[in-house]
């Protein structure tokens, strides 16, 4: 049997428009995966589970040292918050994460003068939007600050009385919809469960869609999945259900019965691994022989000296003296060393000998004149 509408103002289509619930897929596993934390309580303590939706497979994380309820998940922090019972000073705020032990952060603190000290002791439902934690106990909805950097962390910021419309009913858990309102499944005065909507600004609670396919029970562990569907657990009956568009109910799993249960999600997804870096581009092959260096411009060789070499005048042919009268012996001329004009390559450097080339040439010319003059004198004596 399908969902029964509540009238023109509360038609079952309102659930789909507010929660953007798509039609239930033929195979539930095809919906986007959502992981949630669930607390199941049967005795003096609660047990923490990690649940994967939409197939509702779960992993037992461990037993907690106290009873807990009003679980909410702060997605920006990656932590879930719940209220632990059994303390002399009232309910304590406990932070939960699957990879860490529970952290007892102390009691809820009254934030206003007209609010009793730690008014929350035995809550029934809870959900977090941003850094605001909505906690439902009896006929009041409390707003608690869970911003860890705030001076009012763990304080009650607001308290409002619930206004139940269309008859009395109990709400055992809620989750925040995309419109900022709270949604859950409640047992109504007619004995038929219904999806209910709670406005945290006004405290008004009203049914949205009747669910005659569900057993009369208290329903906790409410989570709105990534597919927009509402997931709930029957506490005493133990069934886990998906509620889709138009109130269509699909049973997902059979669980052991509990006295109460609560859930919060979807948990923040771990970051995707970075894509592998491309392999480095190998450098171009290099030759083992180094290229020859560019030619160095050579210094210009100075041109050779343009000074013409000294020339020796040829001496005239010496006549054969007459044998009849031998000439008297003339005193031998003073010996003058013959100095040959050096070639440019043999010319000593003026810095090393102390004489310049012009001086040497003058000395050679003087010696030549003396030699010619001596020869002429000898010839004149021979003629005389």
Description of the structure:
The chain starts with 12 loop residues before the first helix and ends with a helix. Strand 10 and strand 11 (140-145) form a beta hairpin. The longest helix is centred in the C-terminal third of the chain and has 27 residues, at 357-383. The chain is 10% helix and 34% strand. The chain has helices at residues 13-19, 350-353, 357-383, and strands spanning 34-41, 46-53, 57-63, 68-74, 79-84, 92-97, 100-107, 109-110, 125-129, 132-137, 140-145, 155-161, 163-164, 169-171, 175-176, 182-188, 193-198, 204-210, 219-224, 230-234, 239-243, 249-254, 260-265. The strands form five sheets. Strands 13, 14, 15, 16, 17 and 18 form a six-stranded mixed sheet that branches. It has a five-stranded mixed sheet with strand order 8-12-11-10-9, with no helix packed on it. The chain has a four-stranded antiparallel sheet with strand order 3-2-1-23, with no helix packed on it. The chain has a domain at 34-111 and 119-267: Neuraminidase, CATH 2.120.10.30. By secondary structure, the protein is mainly beta. Residues 270-307, 316-335 have a biased composition (Pro residues).
């Amino acid at each position: 049997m399908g969902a029964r509408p509540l009238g023109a103002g509360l038609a079952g289509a309102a659930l789909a428009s507010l929660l953007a619930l798509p039609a239930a897929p033929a195979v539930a596993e095809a919906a986007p995966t959502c992981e949630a934390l669930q607390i199941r309580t049967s005795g003096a303590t609660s047990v923490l589970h990690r649940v994967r939706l939409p197939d509702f497979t779960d992993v037992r994380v461990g037993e907690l040292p106290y009873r807990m309820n009003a679980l909410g998940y702060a997605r920006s922090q990656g932590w879930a918050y719940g209220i632990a019972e059994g303390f002399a000073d009232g309910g304590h705020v406990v932070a939960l994460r699957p990879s860490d032990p529970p952290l007892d952060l102390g009691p809820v603190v009254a934030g206003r003068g007209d609010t009793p000290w730690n008014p929350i002791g035995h809550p029934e439902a809870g959900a977090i939007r941003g850094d605001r934690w909505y906690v439902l106990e009896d006929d009041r909805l409390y707003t608690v600050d869970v911003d860890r950097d705030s001076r009012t962390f763990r304080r009650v910021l607001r308290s409002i009385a619930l206004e139940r419309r269309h008859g009395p009913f109990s709400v055992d858990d809620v989750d925040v919809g995309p419109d900022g309102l709270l949604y859950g499944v409640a047992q109504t005065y007619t004995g038929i469960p219904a999806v209910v909507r709670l406005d945290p600004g006004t405290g008004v609670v009203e049914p949205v869609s009747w669910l005659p396919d569900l057993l009369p029970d208290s329903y906790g562990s409410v989570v709105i999945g990534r597919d927009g569907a509402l997931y709930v657990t029957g506490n005493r009956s133990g069934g886990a259900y998906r509620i889709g568009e138009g109130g269509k109910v699909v049973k997902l799993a059979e669980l052991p019965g509990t006295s109460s249960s609560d859930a919060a999600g979807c948990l923040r997804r771990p970051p995707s691994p970075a894509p592998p870096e491309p392999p480095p581009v190998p450098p171009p092959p290099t030759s083992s022989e180094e290229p020859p260096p560019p030619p160095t411009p050579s210094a210009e060789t100075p041109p050779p000296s343009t000074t013409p070499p000294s020339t020796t005048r040829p001496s005239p042919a010496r006549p054969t003296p007459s044998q009849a009268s031998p000439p008297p012996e003339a005193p031998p001329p003073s010996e003058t060393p013959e100095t040959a004009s050096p070639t440019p390559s043999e010319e000593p450097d003026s810095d090393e000998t102390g004489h310049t080339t012009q001086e040497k040439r003058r000395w050679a010319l003087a010696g030549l004149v003396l030699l010619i003059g001596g020869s002429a004198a000898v010839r004149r004596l021979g003629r005389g």
